[in-house]
Design a protein that fits this description.
Helix content is 44%, strand content 20%. The termini are far apart. The protein is built from 13 helices and 13 strands. It is an alpha/beta fold. The chain has 3 domains: 36 residues; 226 residues, Aminopeptidase, CATH 3.40.630; 101 residues, Sporulation related repeat (Alpha-Beta Plaits), CATH 3.30.70.1070. A hairpin with a 2-residue loop joins strand 2 and strand 3. The strands form 3 sheets. It has a 6-stranded mixed β-sheet, sandwiched between helices. A 5-stranded antiparallel β-sheet has the order 10-11-9-12-13. It holds the Pfam family Amidase_3. GO terms for molecular function: N-acetylmuramoyl-L-alanine amidase activity. One of its GO terms (cellular component) is outer membrane-bounded periplasmic space.
């Protein structure tokens, strides 16, 4: 082999090596780009954060009945709720406590606030001197409507007396003074409607699926709810002072059933407030149903706020959103943005509202001036 042939072979070997390196490098870059894209996509898809708060704990036993402590029952149920919610990949569970420890009411709220959670669910049990009362009820923050609601709130709030410097920590709040509760209805107005929505789901599940006595959705001045910056509810599972209900509450099956209904209510709430990727929710409903008369189709709105004060329904008062509709329901004024028979269109308007700062905005639907579920509304779009 002469010199020129050797040089030719070296050049061919070098070319092959460079070609392999080129393809390998290009492939690696493509692979790295794909990995980064997936990672970035996963990062952008924030999980729905739920704080599960097991009431009482440690030196604070809560109410008692027939030798059973509230702190133990609610912890067992809270952990079960969390485990059920963890089966959903887009949900992140945050516990205020996972064992028998004492945590102040303010600290519980801080846990949720620091996490920037989407929901706060505090779980409790009722207990009174009489053994007759029974049933489940769910509270949202507000001014107590009657003496019973006030007494429940005062009883739950008395736990702060176990905390050091509680007078300073809670701004001079006295859990035993009715005067301290004046003005609670002004707290958390931004989240009141969402809180009521979740409370309704919970009570509906308890009543329809477990046949529990429905004591309703109520408002009262719970400190743990006052301190949170997100939609929040306090669930009273039942009465430990009632013998039959006590038996249900302390049983493994009873706790599992209650946890299932609470977790399902949370998912129902999440689905109601957030856009679904399911084709049933984001399809081309307008093109499929152009022949459907408006008379038989639901109207969708984006609800952005609820408050006791009357605000002019104008763009300048709602971060430039237009049109704004104001209606009155009971003691509240509710503010809506946009309206359409198209669910897809209103989904885009929901995104606009969230971009403008209304993170708790959600879609509602009406048919013949009657509020209906989104599921029912979507059915009106199918010919």
């Amino acid at each position: 082999m002469n010199r020129s042939q050797k040089l030719k072979l070296k050049l061919q070997s070098l070319y092959k090596a460079l070609t392999f390196k080129k393809h390998f490098t290009l492939g690696f870059i493509v692979l790295l780009h794909c990995f980064n894209s997936v990672a970035l996509q996963a990062q952008n898809q924030e999980k729905f954060k739920v704080v599960i708060d097991a009431g009482h704990g440690g030196k604070d036993t809560g109410t008692t009945g027939f030798g059973i402590y509230e702190k133990d029952i609610v912890l067992a149920v809270a952990l079960k709720v969390g485990e059920k919610l963890k089966t959903y990949q887009d949900v992140q569970v945050i516990y205020t406590r996972k064992n028998n420890e004492f945590i102040g009411l303010n600290e519980r709220a801080v846990i949720g606030n620091k996490a920037k959670a989407d929901l706060f669910v505090s779980i409790h049990c009722n207990g009174v001197k009489s053994r007759s009362p029974y049933g489940s009820e769910t509270f949202v923050l507000g001014l107590h409507r009657n003496q019973d609601n006030l007494e429940v709130a005062m009883k739950e709030n008395q736990v702060i007396e176990l905390e050091k410097n509680y007078e300073e920590k809670y701004g001079g709040f006295d859990p035993n003074s009715p005067e301290s509760y004046i003005g609670f209805s002004l707290m958390q107005e931004e989240y009141l409607d969402q809180s009521i929505l979740l409370a309704d789901y919970i009570q509906k599940n308890f009543t329809e699926n477990l046949k529990r006595k429905n004591r309703g959705v109520k408002q009262a001045g719970f400190l743990v709810l006052r301190e949170t910056y997100m939609p929040s509810v306090l669930v009273e599972l039942g009465f430990l002072s009632n013998k039959n209900e006590n038996k249900f509450l302390k049983s493994e099956s009873g706790q599992s059933h209650l946890a299932k209904q609470i977790s399902q209510a949370v998912i129902n709430y999440k689905n109601a407030l957030h856009i679904e990727n399911d084709n049933n929710y984001a399809g081309s409903e307008v093109t499929k149903n152009q022949d459907v008369s408006d008379e038989y189709r639901a109207t969708f709105y984006v609800q952005i706020a609820a408050a006791k004060r009357k605000i002019k329904a104008s763009a300048e008062n709602f971060n430039g959103l237009d049109p704004i509709f104001r209606i009155r329901e009971g003691d509240l004024y509710k503010y809506r943005y946009a309206e359409s028979h198209s669910h897809k269109y209103i989904q885009n308007k929901l995104l606009e509202a969230k971009d403008k700062g209304y993170k708790g905005a959600f879609i509602i639907a009406y048919l013949d001036d009657k509020k209906i579920s989104i599921e029912q509304a979507l059915k009106t779009q199918i010919k």
